């Protein structure tokens, strides 16, 4: 049969388009991708026993493809939507060159061997978040093998109450590894935000980031050698930077720890740790649901902060803002950043009044709907509008953008 158009770029979900490139050879790669997307229900459409060979997969899948099909079926075969549509999967059957997939450990071993890294991370995310296969992060044997990533970190935060001390210690390895990577990346952004703005005044400090290309080339044009097409630099010039200072500012981070805000809690904790100790900034970190927990004492250790977070429960934003308002020392030198979806479970009128009071006394109030790398805002638009109407700045910021905002305020 004709292969038709090339399948779309992969999304590792059989229901939505692709599962990564098949690793094996021999069979038609395009047909294999479509067969993996469509599952066993499409075997008849591919002509069972076709020229591509193989015992399963309608003759389309090679040995590696059958292994991929079994691994995908182990996960997506439990989808209730397929059952409602009468699509039968062959869940639990093995394929190709691998043993039968029985346990989560076996499945993780299979997908790590058969799929590219980005597909493995998507499959792990679907296992934890879509199908709630908790033993991905509560089974010691699984934790010992798994590669730490942000998806698993969010899963650990949601399920650590299910873990015994031994498992919790292994889970901490995931938290530490992911936080370390985030700290390395965000610390660079924060340092850049606080280094100061370039001035036109020359500097005697020779730093690559401050290299004055225009002046250096202009001054050394007399040393241009046409035959070599090169300018020989005898004198290099560098910009100086103006100091961002000055009077001490407070940054009070109020972070919603309800279940949907896991990504925001992670990035808020890491951002707070990056800002901690910077000249001119006094940072506080407070998490809340219906209760308020001040984690400022642990702010320099984001791993400890995250291990103390309890995701889930209700939301009382007004109570958190009331607590934060009591921490303000100099209103006109304070930023209160509320990170939440703004679905208020407490008193909405009190929340609006408290935010209005902060704004009127000169405090800068940021209402941030998300604080992860995508900054994908999911929030109550009606409440967000009410807060904007009383003077709060409402929107979404990545950690780097928040650091830049704080640096701009401190440098005024």
Description of the molecule:
By secondary structure, this protein is an alpha/beta fold. It folds into three domains: 1-133, no CATH class; 198-241, no CATH class; 249-410, Rossmann fold, CATH 3.40.50. It has helices spanning 29-38, 63-76, 80-84, 104-114, 117-130, 135-138, 140-145, 150-159, 165-193, 213-219, 262-275, 302-308, 317-327, 348-360, 381-389, 399-410; strands at 198-202, 224-225, 230-231, 239-241, 249-256, 281-288, 292-294, 334-339, 364-368, 393-395. Helix 9 crosses helix 12 (302-308). The longest helix has 29 residues, at 165-193. The N and C termini lie far apart (69 Å). Mean pLDDT is 76; it is low at 1-18, 22-26, 49-57 and 91-99.
Order of helices and strands: HHHHHHHHHEHEEEEHEEHHEHEHEH
Structural class designation: alpha/beta
Shape: globular
The pLDDT mean sits at 76
CATH architecture of the largest domain: 3-Layer(aba) Sandwich
Please provide the count of β strands. Answer: 10
How far the N terminus sits from the C terminus, by CA atoms, comes to 69 Å
Largest sheet: 6 strands, mixed
Give the percentage of residues in beta strands: 5-15%
Count of runs of 4 or more consecutive helical residues: 16
Number of domains: 3
Strand arrangement in the largest pleated sheet: 7-6-5-8-9-10
Instruction: Enter the CATH topology name of the largest domain.
Output: Rossmann fold
Task: Give the % helix.
Answer: 40-55%
The CATH homology group name of the largest domain? von Willebrand factor, type A domain
Residue windows where pLDDT falls under 50 for at least 5 positions: 1-18, 22-26, 49-57, 91-99
By CATH reckoning, the class of the largest domain would read Alpha Beta
Radius of gyration: 27 Å
Biased composition (Pro residues): 1-13
Protein name: VWFA domain-containing protein
Region (Disordered): 1-26
InterPro entries: LolB, Uncharacterised_CoxE, VWF_A, vWFA_dom_sf
């Amino acid at each position: 049969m004709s292969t038709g158009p090339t399948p779309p770029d992969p999304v590792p979900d059989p229901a939505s388009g692709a599962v990564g490139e098949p690793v094996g050879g021999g069979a038609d790669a395009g047909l294999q991708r479509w067969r993996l997307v469509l599952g066993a229900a499409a075997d008849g459409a591919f002509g069972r026993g076709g020229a591509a060979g193989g015992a399963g997969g309608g003759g389309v899948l090679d040995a590696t493809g059958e292994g991929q099909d079994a691994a995908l079926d182990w996960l997506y075969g439990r989808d209730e939507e397929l059952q409602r549509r009468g699509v039968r999967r062959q869940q639990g059957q093995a394929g190709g060159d691998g043993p039968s997939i029985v346990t989560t450990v076996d499945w993780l071993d299979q997908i790590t061997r058969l799929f590219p890294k980005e597909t493995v991370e998507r499959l792990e995310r679907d296992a934890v978040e879509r199908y709630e296969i908790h033993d991905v992060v509560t089974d010691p044997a699984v934790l010992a093998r798994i590669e730490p990533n942000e998806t698993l970190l969010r899963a650990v935060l949601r399920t650590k109450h299910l873990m015994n001390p031994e498992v919790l210690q292994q889970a901490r390895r995931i938290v530490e590894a992911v936080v370390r990577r985030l700290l390395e990346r965000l610390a660079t952004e924060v340092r850049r935000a606080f280094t100061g703005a370039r001035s036109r005044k020359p500097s005697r400090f020779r730093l690559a980031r401050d290299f004055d290309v225009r002046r250096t080339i202009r001054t050394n044009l007399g040393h241009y050698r046409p035959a070599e097409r090169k300018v020989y630099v005898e004198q290099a010039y560098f910009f100086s930077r103006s100091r961002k200072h000055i009077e001490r500012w407070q940054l009070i981070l109020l972070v919603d720890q309800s279940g949907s805000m896991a990504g925001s809690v992670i990035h808020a904790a890491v951002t707070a740790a990056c800002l901690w100790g910077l000249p001119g900034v006094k940072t506080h970190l407070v998490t809340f649901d219906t209760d308020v927990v001040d984690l400022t004492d642990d702010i320099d250790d984001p791993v400890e902060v995250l291990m103390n977070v309890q995701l889930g429960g209700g939301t009382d934003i007004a109570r958190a803002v009331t607590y934060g308002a009591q921490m303000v020392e100099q209103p006109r030198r304070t930023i209160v950043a509320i990170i939440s979806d703004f679905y208020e479970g407490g008193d909405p009128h009190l929340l609006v009044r408290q935010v209005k009071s902060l704004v009127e006394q000169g405090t800068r109030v940021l209402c941030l709907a998300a604080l992860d790398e995508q900054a994908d805002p999911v929030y109550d638009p009606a409440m967000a509008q009410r807060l904007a109407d009383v003077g709060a700045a409402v929107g979404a910021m990545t950690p780097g953008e928040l650091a830049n905002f704080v640096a701009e305020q401190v440098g005024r």
